Amino acid sequence: MADKTFKYVIVGGGVAAGYAAREFVKQGLNAGELAIISKEAVAPYERPALSKAYLFPESPARLPGFHVCVGSGGERLLPEWYKEKGIELILSTEIIEANLSAKTLRSASGKIFKYQSLIIATGSTVIKLSDFGVQGADAKNIFYLREIDDADQLVEAIKTKKNGKVVVVGGGYIGLELGAALRINNFEVSMVYPEPWCMPRLFTPEIAAFYEGYYAKKGITIIKGTVAVGFTVDAKGEVKEVKLKDGRVLEADIVVVGVGARPLTTLFKGQVIEEKGGIKTDGFFKTSVPDVYAVGDVATFPLKLYNELRRVEHVDHSRKSAEQAVKAIKASEEGKAIEEYDYLPYFYSRSFDLSWQFYGDNVGDAVLFGDNSPESASHKFGSYWIKDGKVVGAFLESGSPEENKAIAKVARIQPSVQNSDLLLKEGISFASKV
Ligand code: FDA
Ligand code: NAD
């Protein structure tokens, strides 16, 4: 098998890869210079769609509708686009070995790829219940969601188990988005998670109370403070029940698990410096190895605004880090300098008719504003976080585009506040005046 050589190789064909390809073209790329090698069978797409519109019972999103870069209002890069630009999309190809000193990658079928510069964009994989030895966790109809193949299997089960019972394990992003999606598909949904409130990574108890109340109103049963410890499986190998640590047993036709993600760095272990679970980079996404960059979920990068190293598992950063790395590669070739990455964390989620955005850092004291009652007609409420007398983070449910822009500005500028009563009183209008 002949080796293939490229000037640039991106390993991983997810969100970051797609945005990097677009940036390469913007910066000037010759045909044959760039290859994207992806385990998935399809060109880069906007992964967030998989837990939202992909699962709608009516007019669900399907490819090619959500290839990158539509998620940020950009051009949709169809497979033909890569062809036209002379970018080789090497799909259904898993890299199983990387040798960063020899600058080679080897695929599962034994193909060798050589590169001058490498961008690592392997993203994350799901943490599985079988990783902690939960009994019966390999049963049929227990689903995880990361890639389009996973979403297709879930869609199939939604059809076969119509109007059945779903148990969602996990109260994070996947749990909340899939709990809603399955309810919309008319399943009887129970959600189980160990913490005292949902999404504790970001939500305060007051924020969580709104979503928990709203989900309950939609008919979802929430069971907190316990975990799934085993599954009952029938003769066909299909899941039938979920056994909880507190002794309760829940019937289930489908189980959806979202108990966290793990960055895919294993290929590079011992070859690059790692930090906080990811591959350590500088503000240009350069790793400790020359000509090797890491972007998206796998990168632990300097978050300039907070003067610390962080890893971020969200789509906005995957897009922006990819663009930054490509700009840095191109600038270094031309002997030019570019600005260091100066990222403002931005996360969002959507479920039912709800939609929130968060900017900044959720540290310090939280001040809730607006009406967080699940019964409220507008669902408009939010929270500021104050640290050392400055507003460092802001969350808003059901904000208008202008209001969302305003909270982003607050989190970036970090205005001083004398007392939290002002934020409580002014609510969103505080942000709108900044
Ligand atoms: P990404 O996971 O997109 O891509 C990695 C690619 O590398 C995959 O194609 C994978 O197959 C491939 N790969 C891995 N190892 C390989 C190997 N050895 N060889 C070849 N290919 C390999 N964020 C947000 O801000 N808002 C949201 O609403 C959502 N919603 C959402 C829904 C769902 C279902 C998921 C799973 C995730 C989200 N996210 C999100 C998170 C967001 O999608 C995520 O942070 C980005 O996709 C990360 O982009 P990357 O390109 O780093 O990885
Ligand atoms: P997560 O970290 O958001 O949530 C994990 C949750 O798992 C925890 O909150 C906890 O409730 C629960 N948990 C942990 N151990 C458990 C156990 N043994 N039993 C039951 N529950 C347990 O992770 P996720 O929701 O799985 O999301 C996976 C990845 O996808 C993350 O990188 C996330 O950022 C990304 N994602 C993001 C979005 C978004 O930004 N809107 C949407 C979907 C997915």
TrEMBL record:
InterPro entries: FAD-oxidoreductase/Apoptosis (IPR050446), FAD/NAD-bd_sf (IPR036188), FAD/NAD-binding_dom (IPR023753), FAD/NAD-linked_Rdtase_dimer_sf (IPR016156), MDHAR3-like_C (IPR048618)
Residue intervals of the FAD/NAD(P)-binding domain: 6-319
The entry's keywords: FAD, Flavoprotein, NAD, Oxidoreductase, Redox-active center
Chain segments annotated as transmembrane: none
Matches recorded under Pfam families: MDHAR3-like_C, Pyr_redox_2
Keyword hit for RNA-binding: no
Enzyme class, spelled out: oxidoreductase
Reactions catalysed according to its record: 2 monodehydro-L-ascorbate radical + NADH + H(+) = 2 L-ascorbate + NAD(+)
Coiled coil location: none
Enzyme Commission identifier(s): 1.6.5.4
Needed co-factor(s): FAD
Domain Monodehydroascorbate reductase 3-like C-terminal, first and last residues per copy: 344-431
Record PANTHER family: APOPTOSIS-INDUCING FACTOR 1, MONODEHYDROASCORBATE REDUCTASE 1, PEROXISOMAL
Family, as annotated: Belongs to the FAD-dependent oxidoreductase family.
Stated role: Catalyzes the conversion of monodehydroascorbate to ascorbate, oxidizing NADH in the process.
Protein name: monodehydroascorbate reductase (NADH)
Organism: Citrullus colocynthis
